[in-house]
Amino acid sequence: MTDSVPSAAPGSADASLGQIEWVTLPDVAERLDVSISKVHQMIRDRELLAVRREGVRRVPAELVANRTVLKHLPGILTLLHDAGYNDEEALRWLYQPDDTLPGTPAAALGGDRAREVKRRAQALGF
User: Fold this and answer.
1) Mean of per-residue pLDDT scores for the chain
2) Taking the alpha carbons of 83, 75, 43, 113 in that order, is the dihedral positive or negative?
3) Of 39, 43, 44, 104, which sits with the fewest C-beta atoms within 10 Å of its C-beta?
4) Over the chain, what HEC string results?
């Protein structure tokens, strides 16, 4: 099941987060064909990003497209964590609109701009 859960008030700096399609952890497990325990482990290992929305941990649907986690996502999450970003901040960074990428860094991870997204995430640590 995919939900669109508002994340911020219209007009706020985080209004772009309101456009994210969300999936619950049990739905992620089903999409990836793994146990819910494995999904929790992936979140702890920063292979996947989950945040609370309306009291339920959810994952942006596009991060688990095509029955797999986006290829470069674990590396990006590690870079962001090393730069001091928590999960909410990492989510905001991934979904910040960027005119030099195709939409957002999260959208660019699924295409040929993934290296550029990695370079930008690396630069945050300096």
Assistant:
1) 85
2) positive
3) 44
4) CEEECCCCCCCCCCHHHHHCEEEEHHHHHHHHCCCHHHHHHHHHCCCCCCEEECCEEEEEHHHHHHHCCCCCHHHHHHHHHHCCCCHHHHHHHHCCCECCCCECHHHHHCCCCHHHHHHHHHHCCC
Task: Locate 31 and state its tokens.
Answer: 């999409």
- Other beta carbons within 10 Å of 67: 9
Structure tokens at 63: 């991060």
- Can you give the pLDDT at residue 19? 80
**pLDDT above 70 coverage of the chain, percent:** 86
Count of beta carbons in the 10 Å neighbourhood of residue 112: 8
Whether the predicted model's global pTM rises above the 0.70 cut: yes
| Host domain of residue 69 | 2-123
Mean pLDDT, rounded, for 36-49: 96
Dist CA 126 CA 16 (whole Å): 26
Structural domains of the chain, count: 1
Q: Is the pLDDT confidence value at 10 over 70? A: no
